[in-house]
Amino acid sequence: MFADSSSTPLTINDERFAADLQALGQIGWAGADGMQRTSFSAAHIEARRWLFDRATDAGLDTRVDSAGNHSVVLPAADPDAPTVLLGSHLDSVPSGGRLDGALGVLAALEVVRSVKDAGLRLPVTLEAVDLTDEEGTFVGTLGSWALAGQLTPGMLRTPRSGREAMLDALRRQGLSEEGLLSGARRDPATIAAFLELHIEQGPVLERIGTQIGIVTGIRGNASFQITFHGAARHAGTTPMEDRRDAGLGAAELILGVRDLITREFPDCVANVGEVRLHPGAFNVVPELARVSLEVRSLHDGELDALSDAARELAAQSAERWGLGLEIDAVGRWAPSPTDERARRAIAGAAHRLGLSAIEMPSGAGHDAQVMARITTAGMVFVPSREGISHHPDEDTDLQDCINGTNVLLGAALELAAESRH
Amino acid sequence: MFADSSSTPLTINDERFAADLQALGQIGWAGADGMQRTSFSAAHIEARRWLFDRATDAGLDTRVDSAGNHSVVLPAADPDAPTVLLGSHLDSVPSGGRLDGALGVLAALEVVRSVKDAGLRLPVTLEAVDLTDEEGTFVGTLGSWALAGQLTPGMLRTPRSGREAMLDALRRQGLSEEGLLSGARRDPATIAAFLELHIEQGPVLERIGTQIGIVTGIRGNASFQITFHGAARHAGTTPMEDRRDAGLGAAELILGVRDLITREFPDCVANVGEVRLHPGAFNVVPELARVSLEVRSLHDGELDALSDAARELAAQSAERWGLGLEIDAVGRWAPSPTDERARRAIAGAAHRLGLSAIEMPSGAGHDAQVMARITTAGMVFVPSREGISHHPDEDTDLQDCINGTNVLLGAALELAAESRH
Prior knowledge:
The structure is a homodimer of 421-residue chains.
Chain A: H1 14-24, H2 42-57, E1 61-64, E2 70-74, E3 83-88, H3 102-117, E4 125-130, H4 142-147, H5 163-172, H6 177-183, E5 191-199, H7 204-208, E6 212-218, E7 220-229, E8 233-234, H8 246-264, E9 269-278, E10 284-285, E11 288-297, H9 300-320, E12 324-333, E13 336-337, H10 340-352, E14 357-362, H11 367-371, E15 377-382, H12 398-418
Helix pairs in contact in A: 1-3, 3-12, 8-9, 10-12
């Protein structure tokens, strides 16, 4: 009765999926300026309406919760059956790409439609969900936090947009802080699993020529503002040996962190994304250098060890060049491994479809990271061309999108079948 | 008849000099915000008036040329006698110190007064000059360029203040572009020498415990904007080996330049005063890094060799990290050695006064650098406390200021005596 028990796995409707991918990619598209579909923008609202129109066309139920999460539902015969949730987000960053988030929502819709078309009677409710504000126009992965029942008033206090802008936007959508904080929460017992298909947003799958990434977990990150204090001096009159040049500390840290990752933390990544020298003139030795450092790891202990090693490097650089040092921890987001059952279901689906697959971590945060707190969560990656993302050039071959959606379908059916036991 | 032929050299009036130094330091002083006496500001004009009042008190002539240079003159008996010019500038940078420039003008005034008080009859006219806009509110060392007859229309085209602001300011002072370009020029044959006393603006004299610096020349400089081009990528999803991180090129250049000076160009200095990473976010690998590099040397050929070596370092860094490279030459200011005769006169004066002295280059630009193009030019340095300059904390012990002024007096008398032959 289930696709995974037959010799030929159930697959999606390629033409319908391709046409919809094309159509959705037009909503909010601004040419060279890329995808302009930030949360609750006119384009975002249009995309959500478009999604529900597709659901209605397919004879599926729709549902909006009090966090604005938009769901397309194929109910189980048994009203008490748990739900297999599939989804991602329709919102984009400013000047983003067509696929980040959108692919996962459309794939989820297509899986639900394909199951309905095939007349399969699953022991679970199947639900495709577009989760609110993953990209954090207001608060990153807001819809997931609300659905998982883990949103706190503190998280709504300083939204990236400013608080007034957020409250205005919520009001215009008929939403409220109270609704976000309580009304959207689902009882974890009612959710059998959460699966998300997403573009890799990195170059690995393309480089190694592999079709499917089975996400082992989402890297946590820790970020720091590191400030070296030297002394501003006239760069013409001050001999090199009399300088305390804050820029030297920054430079040595940048190279040192790179080396640290290569030698001691090969499974981690780190980035110095910003450096500011003060006062910032050709002829003044910098008295201040502020460095923005971010480190990422899949494992909690490793993230701490890497953070400590980076701090130690900064201290060594400061000492070598006679500089003062200040380190401010800006943020920490714990690593979240995916569920082993979900990984097995994804691997099995890829195998049955004859697709090459590899286990890999995700460097970016996703809705699945939040959902992993309350349910069996898994993620499927498909290759990103040249690893480009959050950019108009973000792209993935159509066949890779189809492959990923078929894997999502197969894994969903597998988890649905398991949920009977 | 001359001080340098007697056993006890002529010296200045310490009390008068100290009182005037105190009084001049009040004009434009803004407490913690330091000296606010930019060119043609109310405080600057007040300081020039104060200077002329002192001249009148001392029974000296005054003169303003068509570049606004303010001179205090003790004429020779022979109207055809050449002039020994002594001077510096009364203007300051914004939030500068009390002594940069001002010490040299006041010392020049004190030398002229002391010669007059002593009733010496010199074979030269002695002139203390406050040269217009050394600090470049409009155009750096403007007054010297005009006096040397080397100002060109091109140099007035893009003043730092903007052209309209400069023209307005000139008009308010009764000056004009035409006057600057021709009227202020002196025939080099009428100038016997130019001497300038200045604070060192560096830490060397204080560190080695020496009272007088005999400036061997003013370092030239060459400045470059060096841009490394990488690729902006998600810092979480892009493995280290797939990155082209422009920040690594910048970091390696910063450390490499420091090392280059230490190993191969120990008499030179270099500075990276500014670094900008683009887009400049925690989680984006920098696609651009712009580095502001300045190198300085006392010798023309060495300046070019150092510039070439720095370019080569940048090219190596770019190649190692797979980056594109762009190097823009921003400016070049040729080194200008001081005159041997002037150095000898300064050394002799210091020796006769029992002051310790050392030959040293000047890292900063000065009026003497321009004057050296048309006459025998020399500079005397006195120690700067902690090497601080262009800052409210700029300071020099009063005794060091007195010592320097006595050396200026002795050297002026020596060059005056030589001009007879």
